[in-house]
Amino acid sequence: MPEKIFIQRLALYLKSGTNLVIDFKVDDPGSTCQQIEALKKVLDKPETEETATEPKEEALESNNEFIEFKGQREVHVRIEEIAAFEVLSLVLTPTQKETAKAE
């Protein structure tokens, strides 16, 4: 049986009307990617608490202006421009034809 690939797709909806889609490969489909969790924390904080001393995630660098996602590509987004976001969990299973081509 082909090996399943678990992906979490982050869709960022910006105030300008632009949509950004970032895929993260995850090992455990039941847990959320660390970078997505860190994004939730940054957006959940009231603006007055942004200077609180909390340890930052290594995979996600944030300051008061930008948030940076690191992976196969780097994506920098201005925090104040994020209007909404959604996370989709996907399971990719290669078909028999794709498995045969790989061999």
Q: Short description, anyone?
A:
The protein is of the alpha+beta class and 103 residues long. The chain contains 2 helices and 6 strands, in the order E-E-H-E-E-E-E-H. The protein starts with a strand and ends with a helix.
Secondary structure layout:
Blueprint lengths: L4 E10 L4 E8 L7 H11 L15 E3 L3 E4 L5 E4 L3 E11 L3 H7 L1
Antiparallel strand pairs: 1-2, 1-6, 3-4, 4-5
Structural description of this entry:
This protein is α+β, with helices and mostly antiparallel strands and 103 residues long. The protein has a 3-stranded antiparallel β-sheet with strand order 2-1-6, with no helix packed on it. It has a 3-stranded antiparallel β-sheet with strand order 3-4-5, covered by helices on one side. About 11% of the residues have low confidence.
Spatially, the strands of the biggest sheet line up as 2-1-6
Q: Strand tally, please? A: 6
Element string (H = helix, E = strand): EEHEEEEH
Terminal CA distance: 14 Å
Q: Give the count of helical stretches.
A: 2
Shape: elongated
Arithmetic mean of pLDDT: 80
Rg over CA atoms:
16 Å
Low-confidence segments: 49-59
- Helix % is 10-25%
Helix-strand makeup class: alpha+beta
